[in-house]
Design goal:
Blueprint lengths: L3 H7 L2 E2 L12 H13 L9 H40 L5 E5 L2 E4 L5 E7 L3 E9 L5 E10 L2 E7 L12 E11 L2 E3 L2 E15 L2 E6 L3 E4 L3 E4 L1
Helix pairs in contact: 2-3
Length: about 220
């Protein structure tokens, strides 16, 4: 019979096993403690009805909480499975990610969007390599407020095609003689999905590593 891990593996997903807490007491532990207390009580001073009623009420609370925890665990598992199936559909697709790191593949290009809060008199997209050296400046001129699409063809300012790798891409704008640094979103390809991480579902992006699903602004 296929397990959840088998299903996730077939979808290109990975899971992380939750850490167990050996310090938690379960229902059996509670019952054993109660029975031990009754067996070792002083025969001359047996537990009175009030104490017994208190123990029973505590038992009911523990039972109810355990049932509630079980229900929540089942609901969480169902939600996680649903999210995993939805996330699996992203594998092989491009997403728009809030990042300044763009992956240039051999013969490829890097597309993105910058978001302007207001109109600007001049907008420039700058591309730098891993050492911080400026590779290319893309002049976009005056622009109105909103999302502005741009694309880097992979060539530097001298007409040389740059090697495959990660490049830093930033936007710089001027408005009323003030310098602005608008947000940048870049297209990226999803290679696989990681399920069960500390930050929830993670997307393994081509050339960039893992990002949180919450960083995705658009799916293509």
């Amino acid at each position: 019979m296929s397990t959840d891990n088998d299903i996730y593996s077939g979808l290109g997903l990975t899971t992380q096993e939750p850490a167990s807490n050996s310090n938690e007491l379960g229902m059996d532990d509670f019952l054993n403690l109660m029975i031990t207390e009754l067996n070792h009580q002083d025969p001359t001073k047996p537990m009175d009805n009030t104490q017994l009623a208190t123990q029973i009420s505590q038992f009911s609370v523990v039972s109810g909480v355990e049932d509630l925890n079980s229900s929540f665990a089942g609901l969480s598992a169902d939600l996680t499975s649903g999210q995993a199936l939805q996330a699996a559909n992203l594998v092989g697709h491009e997403v728009l990610v809030a990042t300044n790191s763009g992956w240039l593949s051999n013969g490829g290009s890097v597309k993105g969007v910058t978001e302007l809060p207001s109109s600007v008199s001049d907008l420039t997209v700058r591309v730098s390599d891993a050492s911080g050296a400026l590779v290319r400046e893309i002049e976009l001129g005056s622009q109105s407020a909103g999302q502005i699409n741009f694309s880097w063809d992979g060539y530097d300012d001298k007409g040389n095609y740059m090697p495959e790798g990660v490049y830093d891409i930033t936007a710089h704008a001027t408005a009323d003689d003030a310098e602005l640094s608008p947000y940048v979103y870049l297209n990226a390809k999803v290679d696989s999905v990681n399920l069960g991480g500390a930050n929830g579902i993670g997307l393994n992006i081509q050339g960039l590593g893992q990002i949180s699903l919450s960083n995705v602004a658009q799916i293509f």
